[in-house]
């Protein structure tokens, strides 16, 4: 009998414990009594009713937002909910307090949760960011589509709390850096030389058979709502749930008066190159293979990054790549680390990645900010590599006017951190990777400068704004170990006239100034909104030097400079532009043009993803890299023909310089004002690994009713040529509301070249042969599509 009682007691304890445990994971009776009213309609029979967590209301995502006309999708692999309504895209990740709104993060007071197997999200934070009105009274949640803006309803909700800098410690996932940018001359010279893996551009090669898809047709299942990485670039593809970054603004030193904050991105013309200030190179010493076991910051308060190996390191090769990316190749090493590693986003390193670059080389890539100075050392035991970032601090500002010159002396700053850009009666002096211990807002009595103001610019830079007259030239002089002088003096440019009506520069010829215009070097650096002309002679006596401020719709200013190679004219634009050089009997003429005024056929190529958005990652292969590889081959085909002019949203892993990589509208807008059509290149992925084949997407817009070539026509053409060249399974042409399609005002198509989630198709898509055929398919589609567009 005692034995039976003991068993009954144990069972009661187990049952009671189970009930206590279940009370933390199910909705109790009190929570179940909370009502939900959406647009005046009482919502009933919900799989899980609203609940209260940490004094915040959580509601079922679909029950609320689909009733309001929003699109709601759940992606189990990333545990993320995607909600799209009108022009707002919101991503909520389970157990994370970060809410992504159009690619920009904001923090919520409570995270989304899985309750009773259903996704429950904080209603106030999400609804208000989508533009809905939320109210809670009498234990009922009211959500309405039309927000009433009244004097009593203009404040942010309680969900809007300040972001904590310490929270953001995850890094960007910018990809491997073996994608070295093509030489700028390539894009304007028609150069068709191939990369090492490129095969000859022989028409016979491209027509010598099709790349066959697998034979196991999936009976047209069309499981394209099972994406574990979403083809719609409205959504981050979170291969790592911690891959969320932002750029919270650091506070100025406590001893300084608050600086004015200017939130604008750093203009392309003011990006400072990073600089290696290491005084000792790392010698190569032969050791057996080692393993890289750690890369990151040991102390988040100091900008020192450490790479640790399990045994001595043979050697380190350093390469400063485009866009201030520093690649350290550690020879005779392997690693178990992969992908992006966390770094504090308010430091001068915005991203850190590790990969097995070759069979016996580990590559560590640091994404450096503009103007970053760094040094690299290795420990005496050769197991630790240290990257130290030099942080500048502006200690003092002094001004002196003498002998017809103005001198601005900046203490604590090296000249390598300084970039100057002219404006209308302004000089903008950017101090890269610099904090300030002082505040400057003062009148100046100089020959050229009349006022100086110091601003904080972004997270890591300081901006000195000088009010000057329009005929001011400048020199940047290193006047001490940590002292830089900005010297203002008269601009001497002459012999060059600008006609604002014709947007044309005229340079008169003279006995000492003649040249063949065929010898002028052209460098169309359109990603930086810049075009450089290199004259084959030194024209200092004829043109002088200085910055000519223009300030019209296309052109910002022109810089005239000289060196031993000749004279350089650098044209800095307010938007993407082109130019042509002509001559008549008396003058050289430089015409500034909208690209449509110069080229009869223009296509915008968008290699999907890039930067912190690598897309799908399968077996260490990243979609962003495959997209780029096909794009580079496509650009070679286009350049070899010369029939079409191509502009790309990126040619490296980094997206357009001034764009937030998540700003998909800007990617679409990139070519809206001068392009004829827009092609976005992608590779697919779904949860079902058996699915394979090609798809093409479009979205009808109001603009299609005014033109012969519609987005649907373009998608059909592209899809047909992909089927012919690739021989893949046909998953058809479909309409989707992808951001890069939605915001395009020119015919636009998003081409999918296969499924990375299918092992056989992935292996095929990584080969140069497939990539060339894919590029040829797109190129052939472009040739046909341009037949629909009247030539300008």
Features:
6-stranded mixed beta sheet; 792 residues; alpha+beta
| Main beta-sheet annotation | 6 strands, mixed
Secondary-structure content class? alpha+beta
Average of the residue pLDDT scores? 77
Number of helices: 14
For the terminal residues, how far apart are their CA atoms?
Answer: 100 Å
Tally the beta strands: 53
Q: Ranges with pLDDT <50 over ≥5 residues?
A: 4-32, 147-257, 657-662
Tell me the radius of gyration: 30 Å
Helix content bin: 10-25%
Global geometry: globular
Sheet-strand content, in percent, reads 35-45%
What's the gist of this structure?
With 792 residues, the protein is α+β, with helices and mostly antiparallel strands.
What report would you give on this structure?
This protein is an alpha+beta fold and 792 residues long. It contains 14 helices and 53 strands. Strands 14, 29, 30, 32, 33 and 34 form a six-stranded mixed beta sheet that branches. It has a six-stranded mixed beta sheet with strand order 15-24-25-17-16-20, with no helix packed on it. A hairpin with a 2-residue loop joins strand 35 and strand 36. The longest helix is centred in the first third of the chain and has 22 residues. It is globular. The termini are far apart. About 18% of the residues have low confidence.
């Amino acid at each position: 009998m005692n034995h039976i009682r003991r068993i009954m007691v144990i069972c009661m304890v187990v049952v009671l414990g189970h009930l206590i445990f279940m009370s933390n994971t199910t909705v109790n009776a009190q929570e179940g009594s909370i009502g939900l009213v959406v647009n005046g309609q009482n919502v009933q029979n919900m799989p899980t009713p609203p609940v209260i967590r940490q004094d915040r209301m959580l509601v079922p995502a679909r029950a609320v937002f689909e009733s309001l006309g929003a699109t709601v999708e759940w992606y189990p692999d990333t545990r993320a909910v995607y909600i799209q309504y009108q022009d707002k895209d919101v991503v909520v990740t389970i157990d994370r307090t970060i809410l992504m709104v159009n690619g920009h993060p904001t923090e919520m007071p409570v995270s989304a949760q899985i309750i009773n197997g259903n996704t429950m999200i904080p209603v106030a934070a999400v609804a208000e960011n989508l533009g809905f009105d939320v109210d809670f009274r009498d234990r009922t949640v009211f959500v309405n589509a039309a927000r009433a803006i009244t004097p009593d309803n203009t404040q942010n909700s309680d969900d809007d709390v300040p972001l904590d800098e310490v929270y953001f410690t995850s890094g960007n996932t910018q990809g491997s850096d073996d994608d070295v940018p093509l030489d700028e001359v390539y894009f304007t010279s028609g150069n068709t030389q191939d990369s090492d893996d490129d095969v000859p551009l022989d028409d016979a090669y491209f027509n010598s058979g099709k790349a066959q898809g697998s034979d196991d047709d999936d009976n047209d299942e069309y499981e394209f709502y099972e994406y574990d990485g979403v083809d719609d670039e409205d959504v981050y593809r979170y291969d790592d749930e911690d891959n969320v970054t932002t750029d919270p603004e650091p506070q100025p030193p406590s001893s300084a008066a608050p600086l004015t904050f200017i939130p604008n991105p750093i203009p392309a013309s003011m990006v400072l190159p990073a600089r290696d200030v290491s005084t000792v190179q790392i010698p190569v010493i032969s050791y057996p293979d080692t393993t890289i076991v750690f890369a990151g910051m040991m102390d988040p308060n100091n900008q020192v990054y450490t790479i640790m190996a399990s045994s001595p390191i043979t050697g380190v090769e350093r390469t400063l790549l485009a866009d201030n990316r520093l690649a350290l190749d550690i020879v005779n090493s392997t690693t178990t680390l992969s992908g992006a590693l966390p770094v504090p986003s308010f430091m001068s390193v915005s991203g850190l990645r590790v990969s097995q670059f070759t069979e016996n080389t580990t590559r560590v890539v640091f994404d450096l900010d503009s103007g970053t100075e760094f040094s690299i050392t290795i420990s005496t035991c050769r197991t630790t590599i240290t990257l130290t970032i030099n942080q500048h601090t502006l200690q003092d500002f002094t001004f002196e006017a003498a002998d017809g010159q103005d001198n601005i002396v900046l203490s604590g700053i090296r000249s390598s951190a300084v970039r100057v850009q002219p404006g209308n009666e302004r000089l903008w002096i950017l101090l890269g990777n610099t904090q300030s211990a002082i505040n400057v807002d003062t009148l100046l009595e100089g020959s050229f400068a009349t006022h100086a103001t110091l601003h904080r610019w972004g997270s890591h830079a300081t901006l000195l704004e000088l009010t000057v007259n329009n005929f001011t030239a400048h020199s940047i002089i290193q006047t001490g170990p940590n002292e830089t002088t900005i010297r203002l003096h008269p601009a001497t440019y002459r012999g060059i006239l600008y006609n604002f009506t014709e947007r044309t520069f005229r340079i008169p010829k003279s006995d000492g100034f003649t040249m063949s215009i065929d010898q002028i070097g052209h460098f169309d650096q359109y990603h930086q909104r810049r075009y450089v002309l290199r004259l084959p002679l030194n024209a200092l006596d004829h043109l002088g030097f200085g910055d000519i401020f223009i300030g019209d719709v296309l052109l910002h200013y022109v810089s005239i400079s000289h060196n031993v190679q000749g004279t350089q004219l650098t044209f800095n634009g307010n938007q993407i532009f082109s130019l042509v050089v002509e001559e008549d009997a008396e003058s050289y003429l430089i015409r500034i043009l909208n690209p449509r005024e110069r080229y009869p056929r223009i296509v915008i190529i968008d290699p999907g993803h890039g930067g912190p958005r690598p897309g799908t990652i399968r077996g260490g292969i990243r979609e962003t890299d495959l997209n780029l590889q096909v794009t580079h081959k496509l650009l070679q085909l286009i350049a070899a023909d010369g029939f079409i002019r191509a502009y790309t949203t990126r040619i490296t892993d980094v997206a357009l310089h001034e764009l937030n990589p998540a700003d998909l509208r800007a990617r679409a807008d990139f070519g809206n004002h001068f392009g004829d059509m827009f092609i976005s290149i992608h590779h697919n992925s779904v949860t079902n690994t058996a699915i394979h084949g090609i798809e093409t997407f479009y979205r009808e817009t109001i603009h299609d009713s005014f033109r012969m070539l519609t987005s649907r026509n373009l998608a059909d053409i592209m899809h047909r040529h992909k089927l012919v060249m690739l021989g893949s399974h046909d998953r058809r042409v479909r309409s989707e509301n992808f951001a890069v399609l939605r915001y395009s005002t020119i015919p636009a198509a998003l081409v999918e070249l296969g499924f990375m989630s299918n092992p056989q198709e992935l292996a095929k898509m990584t080969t140069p042969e497939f990539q060339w055929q894919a590029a040829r398919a797109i190129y052939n589609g472009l040739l046909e599509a341009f037949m629909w567009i009247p030539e300008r």
